[in-house]
Specification:
The protein is α/β, with parallel strands linked by helices and 338 residues long. The protein has 13 helices and five strands. Strands 3-2-1-4-5 form a five-stranded parallel β-sheet, sandwiched between helices. Helix 1 links the parallel strand 1 and strand 2. 40% of the residues are buried. Bound molecules: adenosine-5'-diphosphate and sodium ion (NA). Sodium ion binds next to loops. It catalyses: tRNA(Trp) + L-tryptophan + ATP = L-tryptophyl-tRNA(Trp) + AMP + diphosphate + H(+). This is Tryptophan--tRNA ligase.
């Protein structure tokens, strides 16, 4: 059977990806290329649903794509592209929006969370319909239904489960109403994905929207600041390097990071640092983070130094994605009566 197809997207909403993005998602993007036919998308249409600056957005798309390549996304094996370069995303979103109930869309908890921050009536309609665009992002890359029952997977963290559920509902509803068109995508729980907390507030997740600069480790950050932040990260009273999410959330978060980066079980780390206190542990962790990020930063800088190559890679990705997307839309347009 053909290898399963996988689709994932990431927003270009920061100047750098952070350690949470890397360990929670992007490292798995790289690994999945060995087993899946991957479509990876920098989702700039999603990024304009909140306040933004056009020039900053354009720059961040490039920097995001460069980082993905630097991390190991291989444009010869995977299709890497920028969402706005494939207009079918917006077109399919309109069609899917027309089979989505207003109340159904209103139950999306991420919209409630995000809009609560700015006052619900100040939020854009685009932010409200965001999960429908996400459904389109996914369903455009459906394998042909019946094509050897090829698997279709979407890696999802907890926060995206509800959106994938909506995507599945819309795929089934469309198939039922207009004839089988989409393979219903499955949630894929990536191996080794870790949830990373803020270094200063270990009960909250590391996040570009809520972490202070001291709590977040950026992939493109220099070694000095990275080391400083790790050495100053919040630990707990006591000195024991022990995994204990209740009593020791700070140390537990650092252990998770160490374990994920070194691919070493937490219990081995607890043994290795038994009796040595937090200092040596943090020092070694800093070295590990720096060894991971430095080559990614250097490759990113190189890719951004001459953007022609980068632009060519993205144009090639958009052409390949567009081919698949147009194939899907040809069927959709016919089915819905256009
Ligand atoms: P942020 O929370 O910084 O805004 P996004 O929501 O854009 O990041 O998330 C992009 C991807 O990175 C998603 O797949 C998300 O699950 C993952 N991710 C974000 N923050 C973390 C984290 N702290 N730990 C693990 N994964 C994370
Ligand atoms: Na977020």
């Amino acid at each position: 059977a053909a290898s399963p197809r996988v689709l994932s997207g990431i927003q270009p909403t920061a100047d750098s990806f952070h350690l949470g993005n890397y360990l929670g998602a992007l490292r798995q993007w790289v690994a999945l290329q060995d087993t899946h036919e991957a479509f990876y998308c920098v989702v700039d249409l999603h990024a304009i649903t909140v306040d933004y600056e056009p020039a900053v957005l354009r720059r961040r798309c490039k920097v995001a794509a460069a980082q993905l390549l630097a991390m190991g996304v291989d444009p010869d094996r995977s299709t890497l592209f920028v969402q706005s370069q494939v207009p079918e995303h917006a077109e399919l979103a309109w069609v899917l929006g027309s089979i989505t109930g207003f109340g159904e869309a209103g139950r999306m908890t991420q919209f409630k969370d995000k809009s609560a921050k700015q006052g619900a009536s100040a939020a854009s309609v685009g932010l409200f319909t965001y999960p429908i665009l996400q459904a389109a992002d996914i369903l455009l890359y459906t394998p042909e239904p019946g094509e050897g029952e090829r698997d279709f997977q979407v890696p999802v963290g907890e926060d995206q489960r509800q959106h994938l559920e909506l995507t599945r509902t819309l795929a089934q509803r469309f198939n039922h109403r207009f004839g089988t068109t989409f393979v219903v995508p499955e949630a894929y729980i990536p191996q080794g994905a870790a949830k990373i907390a803020d270094l200063q507030e270990p009960l909250s997740k590391m996040s570009k929207s809520s972490s202070s600069p001291q709590g977040i480790l950026d992939v493109l950050e220099e070694s000095g600041p990275l080391r400083k932040k790790i050495m100053r990260s919040v630990t707990d009273t006591g000195t024991e390097v022990r995994y204990d999410p209740e009593e020791k959330p700070g140390v537990t978060n650092l252990l998770r990071i160490y374990s994920a980066l070194a691919q070493t079980p937490v219990t081995d780390l607890e043994q290795r640092y038994a009796g040595s206190g937090y200092g040596q542990f943090k020092k070694d962790l800093a070295a590990l983070v720096i060894d991971t990020f430095t080559p990614i930063r250097e490759r990113t800088e190189k890719l951004l130094a001459d953007e022609r190559d980068l632009d060519r890679i993205l144009a090639r990705g958009a052409a390949r994605a567009g081919e698949v997307a147009r194939g899907t839309m040809d069927v959709v347009r016919d089915r819905v009566g256009f």
